[in-house]
Amino acid sequence: MRKINNLIKILTYSDILILSGWGLVNPIFAVYITSQIQGGNLELVGLASAVFLILKSFVQIPVAKYIDQKKGEVDDAVVMTLGTFVISLVPFLFILAKSAPHVLVLQVLHGLGAALVTPGWMAIFTRHIDRHQEAEEWSIYMSMTSLGMALAGALGGFLAEAFGFKLVFVLVGIISTVGASFLYFVYQDIRRSEKISQD
């Protein structure tokens, strides 16, 4: 395997942590809603998923247009990092959720966070991926994040059964926050590159 540039590595490591963190709870999220939320049922599970996806789908388009209008990549990195920390906050708030409205509000927040992350992340990854290694680097990214989510899914079910959902959400929040902190190095790398190009 040829050498992968540092920025692509950091983006990949960050997503391995964030997606693996959420992988602890995503496969058992329906069980959480039906067993831990007052009035929780399969209708709420479907509605919660729809709220997240609809918000993400509609909001990420104007976010993408906004960052495309700005020169350079610093704004991409800032918006992406902000969204990632929003996503990392959500699992901690799920610990406090008691009712269906709580779940839906948190899914709105999660969808908004994801909408901030996706355009900037995709733009930066696309611009910095190594030429003639596109397929290989995308495959490495997809394989590593998928493996992380697979292992986390199995572990999350065990932890929830043994210790309860609160511990799982705490772990999701901690792991996701650590992954989000990696994006500081992406920001620094981009700032340094843009400063050099301006000199």
Explain how this protein is built.
There is one protein chain. The two termini are 34 Å apart. This protein has 199 residues and is mainly alpha-helical. The protein has a single domain (6-191), classed as MFS general substrate transporter like domains (Growth Hormone, Chain: A, Up-down Bundle), CATH 1.20.1250.20. Helices cover 84% and strands 0% of the residues. The protein has eight helices and no strands. It is globular, with a radius of gyration of 18 Å.
Set down the secondary structure blueprint:
Layout: H1 6-23, H2 29-36, H3 42-69, H4 74-94, H5 100-128, H6 134-163, H7 165-181, H8 183-198
Basic shape: globular
Count of DSSP-assigned helices? 8
Euclidean distance between termini CA atoms = 34 Å
Oligomer: single chain
CA gyration radius, whole angstroms: 18 Å
Low-confidence sequence ranges: none
User: Helical residue percent?
Assistant: over 70%
Order of helices and strands: HHHHHHHH
Mean pLDDT: 93
Q: What structural class results from the helix and strand content?
A: mainly alpha
Query: Main beta sheet: strand number and arrangement?
Result: none
> CATH-wise, what's the superfamily?
MFS general substrate transporter like domains
What's the structural domain tally? 1
Q: State which percent range the strand residues make up.
A: under 5%
- The CATH topology name reads Growth Hormone, Chain: A
CATH architecture verdict: Up-down Bundle
Number of strands: 0
Q: Mind telling me the CATH class?
A: Mainly Alpha
